[in-house]
Design a protein that fits this description.
By secondary structure, the chain is an all-beta fold. 0% of the residues lie in helices and 56% in strands.
């Protein structure tokens, strides 16, 4: 079992920046992939960005060029640097970890952190 805790959400003006952090309770080296999802009010949860254990990253088209995901295995932490924020980025952001082990797949989620971008 892995617990994920997010930090860094808050209120920011459009055009501003925030950095989200996700601290894992155990080594993230064992997680095949980590990432960030978000859910705006009244909408489904959507992928924002993912990063593999090897460091390969993937982004939603809506955030490409503005957001950067990174991971620090030594600190058991994944980051999401968000620049040029827009009001439509307002959502609860969730940290995600995935692990394939023994033929099974395990998903881990944080509790979420609110990001609000004012116009």
């Amino acid at each position: 079992q892995v617990q994920l805790v997010e930090f860094g959400g808050g209120l920011v003006q459009a055009g501003g920046s925030l950095r989200l952090s996700c601290l894992a309770s155990r080594s993230i080296f064992r997680l095949n992939a980590m990432g960030w999802y978000r859910q705006a009010a009244g909408k489904q949860r959507e992928l924002v960005a993912t990063i593999s254990s090897g460091g390969s990253s993937n982004y939603a088209d809506s955030v490409k060029g503005r957001f950067t995901i990174s991971r620090d295995n030594a600190k058991n932490t994944v980051y999401l640097q968000m620049n040029s924020l827009k009001p439509e980025d307002t959502a609860v952001y969730y940290c995600y970890g995935g692990r394939d082990y023994g033929g099974d797949h395990y998903d881990y989620w944080g509790q979420g952190t609110q990001v609000t971008v004012s116009s």
